[in-house]
Amino acid sequence: MANIADIFSFRNISTAIESVKTGIPDRLPSVFNTITEKVFGNETTYHKFFGQRKLVQRTEYGAPSKGYSQNPVTQQPVILTSFNAHVTVEQELLLRLRNVNDLMAQQKAMDFIERKARELKTRFENNRIAHKIQMLRKGAYWYDSSGNLLQSSSGAVATVDFGVPAGNQGQVSSCISATWATTSTNIYGDIIALDKKAIQATGRPLKHFFYGNAIPTYIYKNDSFKHYFQFNPQYFQAFANKPGYIPDGFMGKTWHHMGDVFFENESGTVVQGWDDDILAMTPEIDSDVYTMFEGSKIVPTGMGVQTGETVNLGNTELVHGIHGYSVMTVDPIQVKLIIGDEGMPVWKNAADLYIADVVP
């Protein structure tokens, strides 16, 4: 295989192509990217207030008032995950950059370096997307000894668990009355029951429904929706026009197709991010239920030489979230392009996340 120097020895290099499209599917509403909070370092704490839903007791006219205690306020500590990686700019590329007599070689070297940095940053963007999806699908993050994100707790050495109640998973306290794969199951009634449970649990109605590949067909063919489709023919037609998708507004909900989400692990294997029969549900997304916490780190402001000596803090700055910088090593002379991220998507109110298996 030719090295970089061999490639640049030819002046008639054509434009590079991208044989596999970069990035992974992001099917989540944009609000997941806008609710952020910057924190100092990698730790923070938020408070949980429990709203008042009780009544007051009757008293006789003129009787003393009855005393009531305030609902509890709890503290929830958060320790953010940390991700750091680098790519190396080899001497061959640095030589091409210094070759003032060959502008084409310089430009191609800059293109290769830019692509190195862009691909590495894309890994971090992919990482955030995959974590948000797993937060909704699993209610937890698991990592193996190499720091890889896992789909289950098997082999995990580190865990972040958001504490979704058992009654919010599986059949969701029998709100999923029977398998949705059977046309006679009252799916319409199940969705009504899920709404009722959500209102009683936290007072927040369900808004966003994130669904796997099989769920649109279950609904479209289900007997319990015959009358609904009769009086709402636009939804029946929408199902027919775009099989495999649930139209927005159906049953008053916002539906998100998650059947094609995935990422690629370090061995190159495609990891499916969502199961066909899984339906995750949340209320309206706001800072009461979700936040992307972005930790902070000190990084150098310019490219310096890595010598192992004491760092001059005057040449550093505090950054949050995804950040990048470069350093030069001297043995051999190379440049490291370093990117890091102290950001972590956090589901803050576990009782507002429902993860149903509709084929129990």
Give a structural overview.
With 360 residues, this protein is an alpha+beta fold. 25% of the residues lie in helices and 27% in strands. The protein contains eight helices and 21 strands. The chain has helices spanning 4-8, 31-34, 91-98, 103-138, 187-202, 215-220, 226-231, 233-241, and strands spanning 36-38, 43-49, 73-79, 83-89, 140-143, 149-150, 158-161, 169-170, 208-211, 254-257, 262-264, 270-272, 278-282, 290-294, 296-300, 304-305, 316-320, 323-330, 333-341, 343-347, 354-357. A five-stranded mixed β-sheet has the order 8-21-13-9-10, with helices on one face. β18 (323-330) and β19 form a beta hairpin.
Short description:
This protein is of the alpha+beta class and 360 residues long.
Distance between the termini: 52 Å
Radius of gyration: 26 Å
Strand order of the largest sheet: 8-21-13-9-10
**Outline, from the CA principal axes?**
globular
> How many strand units?
21
Which blocks of ≥5 consecutive residues have pLDDT under 50? 1-17
Main sheet makeup:
5 strands, mixed
Elements, N to C (H/E): HHEEEEHHEEEEHEHHHEEEEEEEEEEEE
Multimeric state of these chains?
single chain
- The secondary structure category is alpha+beta
What proportion strand? 25-35%
Give the helix tally. Answer: 8
